[in-house]
Amino acid sequence: MRIEFLVGTALAALGAAPAFAQVEEIAPASEDAIVVTGQRAQLERSIAFKRDALGITDVAAADEIGQLPDRNVAEVIERLPGVGVQYDQGEGRYVAVRGVPSDLNSYTVNGFEIGNPDGNTRRLPLDVISGQLLNRVEVSKLKTADQEGQGIGATINLVTQTAFDFREPFSIQANVQAGYQELNDKVPVRGDVSVGGRFGVDQQFGLLLGGSYSRRDFQSFGLYPDDWALVAGAARDGLPINLKYTDYRLERERIGATGSFDWRPSDDHQFHIRGIYSRFTEDEYRQRYRLDFADGGQALIDSGALVLAPNGLAGTSTATAQRSDLRLEYKEKSVLAGMIGGTSRFGDWTIDYGAARIHNEVIEPNQLWQFRNVSPVGPVDFDFSEKMFTAMPRTAVGASNLQFRQYSEQDERGEEDIWAFRLDARRELGLGRDSFVRFGAKYRTTDKSFDVANEIYNRGSAANRFTLAGAGLAGPAAEVRVGNGRTYLIDPTIDADLIRAYTEGKLGSALFVRDAATSLVNATVSDLDLSEDVLAGYAVANLDFGTVAVTAGVRVEHTKLDIAGFQLAGAASVLPVAQKNDYTNVLPSLIVRITPANDVIVRAGYSRSLGRPSYASLSPGGQITPEGDEADVSLGNPALRPYVADSLDLVGEYYFAQGALLSLGAFAKFIKNPIFSATSQIGNGSIGGADYVRISVTQPQNGESADIVGLEAAYQQQFTFLPGLLSGLGVNLNLTLIDSTLRIPAAGEGTGRTTGFPEQSDLLWGAQLFYQKGPVEASLAYHHTGRALIAADADPLVDQYNDDLRRLDAKASFAVTDRITLFVEGQNLTDEPTRQYQGGRRDWVIQNERYGRTFWAGISAHF
């Protein structure tokens, strides 16, 4: 789908990428304060935020977060137009907005950049954060100059709760629930509570504390064919090299806390201290069986080792091997943010100020044992009649035929510390109802470290090799139920307790021989330490002439980077390296907001934003591999320039009834400096203190351009005009169509190619049917995320894609009293797997992972 006409439509826009207007904090508690009542209230509140925004922002309000069966922030905002989510083990994790990859978004909490606890990337794993303790989540798709320059896709702002968000001076809200999981009969639990109140003679003080907890023990089953290649005569034009199937068992725990203290001594002054903490842990157990049967493709057919049936759908291979492995992994990711600030009004002037301290951390140790057959596996029969094919050895491989091959012990650790400060001044102009000038400055300094160690131990000499049976390490068989009645058997398994005990004290012995060279590579090339300072200044003017309002602004950001890593030259020479870089970006914006009638708003806009490179791409570390008088070099590139996007937007919004909205818009993004991995040749050069006749350098480089165009539509309405019980019905629909062109330079000699943006789905749509009448509330929510490129290669046959993902969730509740509600939920009701494929061919499946359905029942109360 190519949406060429959208470019012309967007070019006709009069002004800037609209963004969410800052909400003035000075607002004493009143009848207009937030009241958590139900689905209708949350829809109306989200619409009110959207309508009052200077530009284009979608909002998930606190009521919505509680009413939909979502586990984390990623799944909450998936319901909004233009948002696509990548899932991990059945839970939403990374968010792409309007076809822009997740690492090019900006993530903030109460307006301060939150960073991320995800190692050496810039994308925030939103499954770390529970949505239950937030007031709202704002997704600003195109922004004014007073918002962060980072964020080509969007700025995703998490707004925490305060005691002034509720009508009652004292409130308690609590939610407790337990569930049932289809695949392993485990009982997940989760709950949250918040307690808040206003006190003092004039209720000028506010204090709110909240906490949340969830634990989910679950199981998933997956099939993972690898690396398809073209094979003549095969029904799908190719074969994978193997078939892997996996039994995953995981325990995920999420702990969250939030707090806010506010002091509002008068209508003109307010001060606050706020904080949020979230910790996500995961214990993972993975048994995997791998059967090699077509590793060699066409060459195997030519040799006679692989014979295809005449129809190309089935065959037999005698060039086979079996591998079995066990991985035990622990992950811990945490975010801790504290903020202090205030707002003061002096006549026509309003001063806003604040400071934040944020600490992010990731700890990820894991162990992996691998075994392989000693004697030949024998013939393997395979059948490609169905998309998820089968491959089975005629004779099962027993524990005595599985010999130890390798053990790895990985320990990844990362820390990030952020200090941020902001000062903002606004002056009312007295023109129209909302004319002002605003200018300000913001400073952020980030210190980030990432350390990787991965020790490798190989098998010993023939006399010191052991098998699963010989060492008594085999466990009972495990079933892998992939759906449609199909079951695979991992037999034997590797017993986790036995092999841990067996390995203890033997590392470095004749049984587990340390691979010093590989371990040194793993311990050096990915490590980094960096400091990144960003100083920003901006000015914005909003002129409201009644029917027409214009907002113009410019933001200037100066980024200073100091980054260090290690280069490994040869087998053992470790060279510390450090480089600096700095750049300045001028980011203008212009917004035109036309209100031809009270219920119609047309917004047109232009803005410029940027996307800083990932930390891994910026690291100067890497590996230098000499080969005589030549060298192959793989490095990061601290000199990378950020992505820069010029965005155009045009949208019309029709608020035709209370709680109702119909909107249609077009958008386009023209992106400079996209980043690719490129290889260049240097003649008669030096690197790592040595001279070479030829140096081949592979590192990230800036390319020329890319573009994204799309259409976005939304409709929501509450059918209160219908008679009787039907008046409780309502719908919420959204649709996004996106197309992109990413130009990839050639690797070495060649012409290059074009493809779509990673994480960009051509089609996103969602539909929610809800009901609220008397004590009964219910919702049925469906969301479709279209297939999307994961990673592009110079060879299109190696490209990897996420397939379509469709989720159907439901929730129903009954208010026993005006304070207590009982509810039930169902998640992933269609038992939808996540599926990936290769080479643009949906029948070249490289992952099919099943998670099953989950059901919940619980009780919520508010006082």
Cα distance spanning the termini: 52 Å
Number of helices: 8
Largest sheet: 22 strands, antiparallel, barrel
CATH fold node name: Maltoporin, Chain A
What is the overall pLDDT average? 88
- For the record, the CATH architecture stands as Beta Barrel
Helix content: under 10%
CATH superfamily: TonB-dependent receptor, beta-barrel domain
Proportion of strand residues: over 45%
How would you sum up this structure in a few lines?
This protein is mainly beta and 863 residues long.
Features of the shown structure:
transport, Plug_dom, Maltoporin, Chain A, signal, 5-stranded mixed sheet, 49 strands, 8 helices, 863 residues, mainly beta, cell outer membrane, 22-stranded antiparallel barrel, 7% helix, disordered N terminus, tonb box
Please, could you describe this protein's structure?
The protein has 863 residues and is mainly beta. It has one domain: TonB-dependent receptor, beta-barrel domain (Maltoporin, Chain A, Beta Barrel). It has 8 helices and 49 strands. The protein has a 22-stranded antiparallel β-barrel. A 5-stranded mixed sheet has the order 1-6-7-4-5. The longest helix has 14 residues, at 39-52. It is globular and about 85 Å long.
SSE layout:
Blueprint: H1 5-11, H2 39-52, E1 56-61, H3 62-67, H4 73-77, E2 83-88, E3 91-97, E4 106-109, E5 112-113, E6 134-142, E7 155-160, E8 170-181, E9 189-199, E10 205-223, E11 229-230, E12 238-239, E13 242-266, E14 269-292, H5 298-303, E15 306-308, E16 314-317, E17 321-346, E18 349-373, E19 380-383, E20 390-393, E21 402-428, E22 436-459, E23 474-475, E24 478-483, E25 486-490, E26 493-494, H6 496-503, E27 512-514, H7 516-524, E28 528-544, E29 548-569, E30 573-597, E31 600-611, H8 615-618, E32 622-627, E33 630-635, E34 643-654, E35 661-672, E36 675-687, E37 690-702, E38 705-718, E39 729-744, E40 753-755, E41 763-773, E42 776-785, E43 788-791, E44 800-802, E45 805-815, E46 820-827, E47 834-838, E48 841-850, E49 854-862
Parallel strand pairs: 4-7, 29-32, 33-37
Antiparallel strand pairs: 1-6, 2-3, 4-5, 6-7, 8-9, 8-49, 9-10, 10-13, 10-48, 11-12, 13-14, 14-17, 15-16, 16-19, 17-18, 18-21, 19-20, 21-22, 22-27, 22-28, 23-26, 24-25, 28-29, 29-30, 30-31, 31-34, 32-33, 34-35, 35-38, 36-37, 38-39, 39-40, 39-41, 41-42, 42-45, 43-44, 44-47, 45-46, 46-49, 47-48
